Amino acid sequence: MGLTEWAYSLSESLLSDPLPRRWAHSLGVAERARSLGPIMGDDAELLEAAAVLHDIGYSPAIATTGFHPLDGARFLRDQERADKRVVRLVAHHSCALLEAEERGLRQELEGEFELERPDLVDALLYCDMTTTPDGTPTSSTERMDEIVHRYGPDTIVGRFIQRAAPEIHAAAKRVEGRLAQVSADSQPM
Ligand SMILES: [Fe+2]
């Protein structure tokens, strides 16, 4: 089985039944990942696999600490013996270190999982932060407003997302810049 095929089937088995909206979001994030094909080169499949798996830690079947990037990455590492790069991307998706800090789990997360290459980290963040909870495309500004509204500004997630906002916008800008560059380069002279 190929990397992406395995990733879709694993994510579906963990999310689609107990958390259909989270599954719809994951499919949308994976679709965004496919749209980054022109800038991903040989890493296109890796990004798509990480995209469809990034939120599996929410699945009641594997949630243990309640911090989904850590639970998802531990499951992929220990139960699935998954590709290291997929595991690292899931562990650190969308500024997870900042949320880990709010939860007192920073040492666990950074002690167990290395960060992947910055351009891959940016790409996954972009895909997640420009996709609504229902899986449709949005902007990073609207996405963050929605998160703060859904969780409340003075909750763990609300505080985390407000601290992460500058990095999220900067990463989204970097990815959009790379996309624009590739499309400018491919225009006929
Ligand atoms: Fe997530």
3D structure, described in words:
The protein has 189 residues and is mostly helical. The chain has one domain: Hypothetical protein af1432. 69% of the residues lie in helices and 0% in strands. It contains 11 helices and no strands. It has helices spanning 3-15, 20-35, 37-40, 44-53, 68-78, 84-91, 96-102, 106-112, 118-129, 140-151, 156-185. The longest helix is centred in the last third of the chain and has 30 residues, at 156-185. It is globular and about 55 Å long. It starts with a helix and ends with a helix. Fe (ii) ion (FE2) is lined by residues 54-55, 68, 93-94.
Number of domains: 1
> Tell me, what is the CATH class?
Mainly Alpha
| Number of helical regions | 11
Structural class: mainly alpha
Q: Enter the CATH topology name.
A: Hypothetical protein af1432
* Amino- and carboxy-terminal Cα gap: 42 Å
Which ligands occur here? fe (ii) ion
CATH architect. name: Orthogonal Bundle
Helix content: 55-70%
Largest sheet: none
What sequence of helices (H) and strands (E) makes up the elements?
A: HHHHHHHHHHH
Overall form: globular
Beta-strand percent range: under 5%
Radius of gyration of CA atoms, rounded to a whole number: 16 Å
Q: Determine the mean pLDDT.
A: 96
Low-confidence stretches: none
Say how many strands there are: 0
